[in-house]
């Protein structure tokens, strides 16, 4: 599938300073999308935005902590204030909680995971949908996880929050299907992003790779390619789906 149809589309990405978000921004800039980027890492975000602008991209970038609804709302408002609309909202910001047994998981870890991974997605969807209703449609993609489709041993807080993302995706997709708003989630297996490689999960990457029929982790580019497909204009009849990108694990 060609991604040239993204030219001049206004695309909002949270968690844009690294990982999937950064790669999405770079690939979309190449095809002429107009970008609205948010991340709590203000310096990393500014560096990325500067590089993209030097390459000729139209970019709005501002610090955004997705646990704060006002900041998420402000990012949507920045899209509309600059470009007059919002075509695609990608709720990508997330964190990975420490690996520990279910009974050793602390309340503050659960609260933090839900604040970033679930409430952050909810806030994004809420304000993106409001704008898309006003303009007559749009596309939303939420980054969930294979941990949102099945059990996630040693990652109870993370898995619970990602299950919430899948539930929010399906619920909103049904509510707004007749309003020309498509809403899907992508559910990757472990991928070699900085969030994973810098964590305790990354230390177990060789072991985790053996759980995949392909016997390897995903690359960020493989996941981003699916994300772009899910949001593409041509993919106009797909909504309410939680799409596994897992090297075949869910085929068992």
Automatic annotation (TrEMBL):
Domain of life: Bacteria
UniProt feature coiled coil, ranges: none
Protein's UniProt keywords contain Iron: no
Enzyme kind, highest EC tier: oxidoreductase
Family matches, as Pfam families: adh_short_C2 (PF13561)
InterPro entries reported for this sequence: NAD(P)-bd_dom_sf (IPR036291), Sc_DH/Rdtase_CS (IPR020904), SDR_fam (IPR002347)
Signal peptide: none
Keywords of the record: Oxidoreductase
Keyword Oxidoreductase carried by entry: yes
Record-listed E.C. numbers: 1.1.1.47
Gene Ontology terms, MF aspect: glucose 1-dehydrogenase [NAD(P)+] activity
Family: Belongs to the short-chain dehydrogenases/reductases (SDR) family.
Name of the protein: Glucose 1-dehydrogenase
Source species of the chain: Pseudomonas schmalbachii
């Amino acid at each position: 599938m060609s991604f040239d149809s993204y030219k001049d589309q206004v695309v909002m990405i949270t968690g844009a300073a690294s990982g999937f978000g950064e790669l999405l921004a770079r690939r979309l800039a190449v095809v002429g999308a107009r970008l609205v980027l948010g991340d709590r890492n203000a310096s990393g975000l500014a560096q990325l935005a500067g590089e993209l602008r030097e390459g000729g991209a139209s970019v709005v970038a501002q610090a955004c902590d997705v646990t704060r609804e006002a900041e998420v709302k402000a990012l949507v408002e920045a899209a509309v204030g600059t470009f007059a609309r919002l075509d695609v909202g990608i709720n990508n910001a997330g964190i990975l909680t420490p690996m520990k047994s279910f009974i050793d998981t602390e309340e503050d870890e659960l609260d933090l995971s839900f604040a970033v991974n679930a409430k952050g997605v909810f806030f994004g969807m809420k304000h993106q949908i409001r704008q898309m209703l006003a303009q007559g449609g749009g596309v939303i993609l939420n980054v969930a996880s294979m941990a949102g489709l099945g059990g996630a041993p040693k990652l109870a807080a993370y898995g619970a929050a990602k299950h919430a993302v899948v539930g929010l995706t399906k619920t909103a997709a049904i509510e707004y299907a007749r309003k020309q708003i498509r809403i899907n989630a992508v559910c990757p297996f472990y991928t070699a992003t900085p969030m994973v490689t810098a964590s305790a999960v990354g230390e177990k990457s060789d072991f985790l790779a053996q759980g995949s029929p392909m016997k390897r982790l995903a690359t960020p580019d493989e996941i981003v390619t699916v994300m772009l497909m899910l949001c593409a204009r041509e993919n106009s009849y797909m909504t309410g789906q939680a799409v596994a990108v897992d090297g075949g694990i869910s085929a068992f």
